[in-house]
Design the sequence.
């Protein structure tokens, strides 16, 4: 298998040595705490830098993948052969001037959803309270149309800026975003840099009350203190994955240190030293049990990247 770690010094000269890492363990960049090393990990902070990285990757036929805070991500144990681009350096959160629409926020892809919700509440803007307890950053939330409690990112995104695989930039708006349940039309070859969010003026006290209610619901129902990647499976139409998994008798089932949460069966947690192989084997067992019990074929919601360890 071809490794690209030898290109580290050349890439460091272009971006700066402090923001290029070679053979970087990806377990340190995911909420699961699981994953082998990336040949190269880069942390750009501007669209121009990101474009240069993508051009570098393209010129060398080097695979690349963009990640955010790693909260919906499982990296296989063999790691990633190529370039991992970590987008958490895109942290701008700008309140648009009244003449531009004072109900709008221009937000970088690396800003945490919780920070966006808090800032909107301070400004008396409603529409994104649902995202206050969703772990992760805006870029990934836009790509997967993240949502909770009846709200979803599609309801507030007016446009977004993406960088294409050739390093060029492009703005997407309206139908071009192609939002659907936990998905969008933003392709693998496009990386979200920022989004323009359109919110609605409302009473700050009422906004904060809703945020508190959502937080309490999460604390009661989800294993927030455990290492996980959020919901392991997408919600089937008209049903709930966690309910189906519990009905199939899988709550508390373990493979190695990977466990179906006893608090919420929709979550798989890392009890200490779980490997990606453990998690994937457990997901397969859950899939089989649910399919046999209810006939429903669950679809993963966790994003899975990288290579298995060679035999």
Sequence:
């Amino acid at each position: 298998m071809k490794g690209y770690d030898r290109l580290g010094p050349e890439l460091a000269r272009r971006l700066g040595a402090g923001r290029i890492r070679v053979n970087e363990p990806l377990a340190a960049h995911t909420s699961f705490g699981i994953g082998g090393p990336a040949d190269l990990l880069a942390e750009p902070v501007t669209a121009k830098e990101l474009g240069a990285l993508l051009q570098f990757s393209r010129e060398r036929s080097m695979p690349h993948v963009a990640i955010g805070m790693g909260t919906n991500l499982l990296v296989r144990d063999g790691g990633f052969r190529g370039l991992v681009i970590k987008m958490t350096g895109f942290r701008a959160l700008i309140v648009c001037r009244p003449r531009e629409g004072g109900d709008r926020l221009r937000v970088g892809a690396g800003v945490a959803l919780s920070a966006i919700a808090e800032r909107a509440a301070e400004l008396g803007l409603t529409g994104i309270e649902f995202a206050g307890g969703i772990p992760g950053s805006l870029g990934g939330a836009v790509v997967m149309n993240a949502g909770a409690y009846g709200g979803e990112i599609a309801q507030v995104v007016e446009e977004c800026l993406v960088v294409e695989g050739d390093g060029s930039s492009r703005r997407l708006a309206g139908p071009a975003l192609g939002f659907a349940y936990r998905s969008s039309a933003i392709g693998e070859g496009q990386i979200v840099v920022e989004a323009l969010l359109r919110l609605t003026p409302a009473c700050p006290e009422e906004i904060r009350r809703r945020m508190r209610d959502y937080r309490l619901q999460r604390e009661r129902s989800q294993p927030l203190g455990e290492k996980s990647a959020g919901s392991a499976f997408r919600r089937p139409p008209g049903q709930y994955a966690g309910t189906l998994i519990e009905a199939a008798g899988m709550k508390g089932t373990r493979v190695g240190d990977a466990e179906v949460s006893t608090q919420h069966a929709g979550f798989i947690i890392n009890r200490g030293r779980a490997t990606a192989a453990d998690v994937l084997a457990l997901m397969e067992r859950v899939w089989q049990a649910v399919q046999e019990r209810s006939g429903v074929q669950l679809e993963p919601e966790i994003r899975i990247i990288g290579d298995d360890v060679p035999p």
Observations:
- The chain has three domains: 5-86, 93-206, 223-305.
- The domain at 93-206 is CATH 3.30.465.10 (Uridine Diphospho-n-acetylenolpyruvylglucosamine Reductase; domain 3).
- The radius of gyration is 20 Å.
